[in-house]
Write a sequence for this structure.
């Protein structure tokens, strides 16, 4: 036994026929109003079908759309690199410049004087002191010899003369 | 993978070179009496290279070593004494630098300090100190950095490595530029 709602839905869908249709329409209090409602329902159904068919996405499209949205979200969330100066061409030029500077420096340094030559360092006297009580007139001079030995000389004058015995080994 | 043995070999060579480059130096310190005598004795072997310089500077014809010390410096922090009967030269090494060693020198006459000085003794530049007049002669203090024998022989056998020389020169320039 069908309920009224089931028969109403079937009537709206045009699925009632014969004796069942006649009995149902006879049971309606206002057939004209029911017919109008049926037409509206059919129109609404047709409209919805049309709209849904136009906007529906296939599974692949839906998946792709979701994926793109996620990628966009991730890209926005990720902190962007702040330095854009070190581009590849600049890196290449910087490397080439550094290499050229190194080569030039090396060549200049190596050509300053022939390899194997002695260091140009001289011995330096940082400070010197003679006991002023024992040698009140003592003075100190510092100089380098003019010849190739590069001898640094600390020359004292005015030190107390000592007897020859002090030359003993 | 084939680069690994090559890299190891290069590192080994560099390590050996570094060890050789930092080989110990010997500092010769001598107490020398210079005087003029009718028949001068031959100059001691340590002073042969300096003979003419000493003669020109001081005007004496004989140089006799009355006390000496050959000190091998490994850390550059050693100290030693070269002494004669009445004099002693105390040398206190305060570290090594590019040029040589920083030394603190004290000349003692018995227990009295006659002279004090601090010096950067260069490996290529001897230091000569004119001390007091002793009788008719003159006391001289001489300090010379002698090369390690092995290094000395190698240097004579082979020319200096230009890369190493360049590197030392660069270090020296940077060292001179920095305050």
């Amino acid at each position: 036994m069908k309920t009224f709602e089931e028969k109403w839905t079937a009537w709206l869908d045009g699925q009632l026929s014969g004796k069942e249709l006649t009995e149902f329409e006879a049971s309606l209090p206002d057939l004209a109003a029911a017919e109008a409602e049926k037409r509206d329902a059919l129109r609404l159904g047709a409209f919805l079908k049309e709209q849904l068919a136009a906007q529906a996405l296939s599974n692949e499209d839906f998946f792709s759309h979701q994926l793109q949205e996620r990628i966009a979200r991730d890209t926005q969330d990720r902190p962007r690199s702040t330095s854009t100066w070190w581009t590849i061409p600049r890196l290449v030029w910087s490397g080439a410049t550094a290499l050229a500077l190194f080569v030039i420096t090396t060549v200049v340094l190596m050509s300053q004087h022939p390899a194997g030559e002695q260091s140009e360092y001289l011995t330096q006297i940082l400070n010197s002191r003679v006991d002023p009580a024992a040698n009140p007139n003592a003075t100190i001079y510092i100089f380098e010899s003019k010849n190739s030995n590069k001898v640094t000389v600390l020359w004292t004058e005015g030190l107390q003369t000592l007897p020859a015995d002090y030359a003993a080994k | 993978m084939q680069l690994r043995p090559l890299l190891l070999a290069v590192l080994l060579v560099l390590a050996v070179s570094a060890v050789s480059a930092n080989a110990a130096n010997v500092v010769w310190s001598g107490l020398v009496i210079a005087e003029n005598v009718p028949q001068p004795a031959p100059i001691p072997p340590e002073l042969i290279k300096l003979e003419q310089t000493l003669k020109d500077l001081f005007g004496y014809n004989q140089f006799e070593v009355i006390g000496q010390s050959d000190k091998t410096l490994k850390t550059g922090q050693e100290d030693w004494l070269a002494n004669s009967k009445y004099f002693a030269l105390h040398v206190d090494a305060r570290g090594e630098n590019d040029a040589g060693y920083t030394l603190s020198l004290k000349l003692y006459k018995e227990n009295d300090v006659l002279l004090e000085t601090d010096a950067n003794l260069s490996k290529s530049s001897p230091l000569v100190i004119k001390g007091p007049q002793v009788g008719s002669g003159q006391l001289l203090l001489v300090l010379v950095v002698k090369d390690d024998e092995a290094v000395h022989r190698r240097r004579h056998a082979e020319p200096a490595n230009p890369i190493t020389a360049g590197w030392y020169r660069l270090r020296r320039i940077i060292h001179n530029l920095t305050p």
